[in-house]
Design brief:
The complex is a heterodimer of chains A (about 80) and B (about 350). Chain A has one helix spanning about 20-25; strands at about 1-5, 10, 30, 35-40, 50-55, 55-60, 70-75. Chain A is mainly beta. Chain B is α/β, with parallel strands linked by helices and about 350 residues long. Classes of the chains: A mainly beta (about 80), B alpha/beta (about 350).
Chain lengths: ~80, ~350
């Protein structure tokens, strides 16, 4: 299936998490309060470092989110 | 799940709540073939979304990784050990990538084995515990024969004891023996801490970070039971034995409690790990609070009020246990909400019974 990450179309497989997709693209999920790039750490939804915006909503924990057809993902926000 | 089955088999009506989208917590991770008949399921929920009455409550909240701060640990290529394994299961492409696995605990072996199975190169597995302790532990495994087979299955090249990470940098990590290893990811976790927040919120008596229970898994609060990692980090067999006991209202069987004690002794963290962070190292990732800012403070409360340490999204789930290890600062009171909620959750229309529609968590 296809989703869009920061405007770019990406081919993904059902069952993948948005966090894994973003990491595979070499992107940081978010920026910390002082602007550091951050990515997923715990993989289980407790650290909140994987937050990003999906379909205009957020920040949401991308490691808890399976991909859906046509999703719009935006990274690098606080 | 073991508790739910046992209670169901006793004729009790059972509701199982799990905030993950699938059954089985962090071990089974919503595997397709998991079945739990005759039990009501509430999956993907946060507890504050459920209201009702129950005769008894069995807590099986599991554990999370202990992540200790060291220079460079907040860089995106540094991930938990169990965390990286979870992300690979979620579709992280790891074939052909180099991963250094470090920290502490038998989990490192399982992670290294699974990463290699998925096609990653794992040049080093660095366990902070010294060889002598690991040998003693290995010789004692005859008490839990199933674990011997498991250990042999995980036997791994590149495993070194008495070694820990001291600095992560772009493209690699430096270990305590001075070795610098290039890698794509550092999978680093220093053991597990129980997710004791719900038990503490309910007023259960605690033994340090663990929930105090009797041989029937009863906590100090009438009607509340606790099983699995919450009562001692000891793996899936312990969790299932305790779950069955709590569900069936019986005394727990087996010697898995002793296994948990052996693990705790073997993989106890060494003193050097209290001092990995420099003044510049971020301790609270949510609020970017650096160690130098809080090192001379009196405790978590002061660090929180003066520097916002622990006031971020994770509710101190990451920095809390780290600071308990580094400084001996005790845990703070748990206040609701147990887990972060968006304000929207409080504004949702509720049905006549007071239940909100199924929301999505942050």
């Amino acid at each position: 299936m296809k989703i869009r990450v920061n405007g770019q179309e990406v081919e993904v497989q059902a069952g993948m998490s948005v966090a894994a997709v973003v990491m595979n693209l070499g992107l940081a999920a978010r920026r910390s309060v002082t602007g550091e790039p951050r990515g997923p750490v715990c993989g289980m939804g407790v650290c909140f470092e994987c937050r990003l915006w999906v379909d205009g909503e957020g920040p949401l924990r991308s490691c808890q989110m399976p991909v859906r057809e046509g999703m719009e993902v935006v990274t690098d926000a606080v | 799940m073991a508790a739910a089955r046992a209670a169901r088999d006793q004729g009790e009506r059972v509701l199982l709540l799990d905030d993950n989208p699938g059954l089985g917590g962090q071990i089974w991770r919503g595997r397709e073939d998991l079945r739990l008949e005759g039990v009501e399921l509430g999956l993907g929920h946060t507890l504050t979304e459920w209201r009702g009455e129950a005769k008894r409550l069995i807590l099986a909240c599991g554990a999370r990784e202990l992540l200790l701060p060291f220079p460079g640990w907040t860089m995106p290529h540094v991930v938990g050990a169990g965390g990286l394994q979870a992300l690979v299961k979620q579709g992280l492409a790891i074939q052909g990538k180099r991963v250094v696995v470090c920290g502490s605990g038998p989990l490192l072996l399982a992670v290294a084995a699974n990463l290699r199975k998925a096609g990653a190169e794992v040049p080093r597995v660095a366990e902070q515990a010294p060889w002598e302790k690991l040998l003693t532990f290995g010789l004692g495994l005859w008490r839990w024969p199933s674990k011997i087979f498991e250990a042999v299955g995980y036997a791994t090249s590149g495993y070194r004891a008495g070694l820990w990470p001291v600095e992560a940098w772009e493209g690699g990590v430096t270990l305590s023996d001075g070795s610098k290893i290039n890698c794509d990811y550092v999978a680093c976790g220093f053991g597990l801490v129980a997710n004791g927040e719900l038990a503490r919120l309910l007023g259960c008596r605690m033994n340090g970070g663990l929930v105090a229970v009797d041989d029937w898994q009863r906590t100090s609060v009438e009607g509340v039971y606790a099983v699995g990692e919450m009562t001692g980090i000891g793996g899936v067999e312990k969790a299932e034995a305790e779950g069955r006991a709590a569900g069936a209202r019986q005394r727990v069987t087996g010697n898995w409690g002793a296994f948990a004690s052996a693990l705790a002794k073997t993989f106890a963290l060494r003193e050097e790990l209290r001092a990995l962070a420099t003044a510049e190292t971020i301790v609270c990732r949510c609020e970017d609070v650096r160690w130098g800012r809080i090192a001379t403070m009196g405790g978590k409360r002061q660090a929180r009020l003066e520097a916002r340490c622990g006031m971020g999204a994770c509710q101190a789930r990451i920095c809390g246990p780290a600071l308990e290890w580094m400084c001996g600062w005790g845990p703070e009171n748990v206040r609701p909400p147990l887990f972060p909620l968006s304000v929207r959750e409080f504004l949702r229309d509720r049905d006549e019974a007071g239940h909100p529609p199924t929301g999505h968590s942050l």
